[in-house]
Specification:
The protein is built from eight helices and 21 strands. With about 350 residues, it is of the alpha+beta class. It has two domains: about 220 residues, Rossmann fold (3-Layer(aba) Sandwich), CATH 3.40.50.300; about 120 residues, Nucleic acid-binding proteins (OB fold (Dihydrolipoamide Acetyltransferase, E2P)). It is elongated. The two termini are about 30 Å apart.
């Protein structure tokens, strides 16, 4: 059963419609990541759920009950923001304690709760520091502690890691799931970083044009995107897309021309016979060999770019079609430099096909 539910939410500002009949169900203790480019309404949805904004239509339910007649302070919802939003004149202790003081809890209980959450977030040693004395990572943890300290029923995080450095961002991607489990929080997490979405979400809601383009597990969103738009949002380097029109030979084998080279797609693709579509293959599913291989596409190595534990290679076919391949860094093929001839292969078990006109996955 859904613990948090948004039903038919619509919101417009003047003539600009931001959310259009959007619905969402989040289970108790589940983390759903709201993912999409800037301006698609992710933060607007959080504010509507929190009660800061009124929707033009629709309802918000928490634990099966409508909260539309309740103010933000009555909904049991907490938010943490990307700009930290800390009180500059208060030290970290008082920033975290502020929601508890608003509820007029006993001083001893306030001290205990703040120290417990600060210890969990590893900022107990800076509780007497003002925000200007804190690192960005410590500010982020302080903001998160303030959101968690009163045990909210629903926790909403609005791109909280955007303003922290790469090391802290990586560490928090590892820590946040543990913290969510500790508090049994029902979480809505906003981000524009696809890696963050894949790492943190039990499910990912890809928000485009005011609606969810896809709402599914991270694995499904990445490996079985609903359409070309979703596929393009995930992956760095981005997915390779080739416009093709598959044809079937007399033996029932389906072929497509990619980079001027006929490539066997397998008899199982016979439903695509004669249909104009786009073949999508992620760079990590492209192989590279400097010896001829079956079903290989002749290419020339144009550039090699190291990216942490992987190396991206730019390949070009004789008809100037570009192919991006991503190889493990310790792969000797990935260390090749200069313009060299080679053969690219596609992992046909992981390829995707999209309708050329609608972009829908076939």
């Amino acid at each position: 059963m859904a613990y948090l539910e948004a039903r038919g939410i619509s919101k417009a500002f003047g003539k600009k419609r931001v959310l259009e009949d959007l619905s969402l169900e989040v289970g108790r203790g589940e983390c759903v990541v709201l993912f999409g480019p800037s301006g698609v309404g992710k933060t607007i949805l959080l504010r509507i759920i929190a009660g800061v904004l009124e929707p033009d239509a629709g309802q918000i339910l928490i634990d099966g009950r409508s909260v539309m007649d309740q103010g933000p302070e009555e909904r049991g919802v907490a938010m943490a923001f990307q700009n930290f939003a800390l009180y500059p004149h208060m030290d970290a202790f008082e920033n975290i304690a502020s929601p508890l003081r608003a509820r007029r809890l006993p001083e001893q209980e306030i001290k205990q709760r703040v120290h417990d959450i600060a210890t969990l977030l590893r900022i107990d040693h800076v509780l007497d520091h003002l925000p200007r004395q804190l690192s960005n990572g410590q500010k982020q943890r302080t903001s998160l502690g303030r959101s968690l300290v009163h045990g909210p029923a629903v926790l909403m995080l609005d791109d909280p890691l955007r303003n922290v450095d790469a090391k802290i961002r990586y560490e928090m991607r590892l820590e946040l799931p543990r913290i969510f489990r500790k508090f049994e929080s029902t979480v809505l997490y906003v981000t524009q970083d696809y890696k963050e979405a894949l790492a943190l979400g039990d499910r990912i809601g890809v928000l485009l044009d005011g609606r969810f383009e896809q709402l599914d597990t991270p694995e499904t969103v990445y490996r079985a995107p609903r359409n070309r738009r979703v596929a393009n949002l995930f992956g760095d380097p981005p997915i390779n897309l080739f416009r093709i029109r598959p044809t079937r030979d007399g033996d029932g084998e389906v072929h497509a021309v990619i980079g001027g080279q006929p490539v066997a797609l397998g008899a199982a693709r016979n439903r695509l016979d004669g249909r104009e579509c786009e073949l999508g293959v992620r760079p990590e599913d492209v192989g590279l060999s400097f010896e001829p291989v079956p079903n290989g596409i002749p290419v020339e190595l144009e550039a090699v770019t190291p990216f942490n534990v992987r190396t991206v290679t730019l390949l070009k076919t004789p008809d100037a079609t570009e192919i991006l391949a991503s190889q493990p860094e310790d792969n000797s093929l990935a260390t090749a430099r200069g313009h060299r001839k080679g053969w690219a292969t596609l992992d046909l078990e992981r390829t995707m096909f999209f309708d050329a006109k609608t972009g829908a996955r076939l």
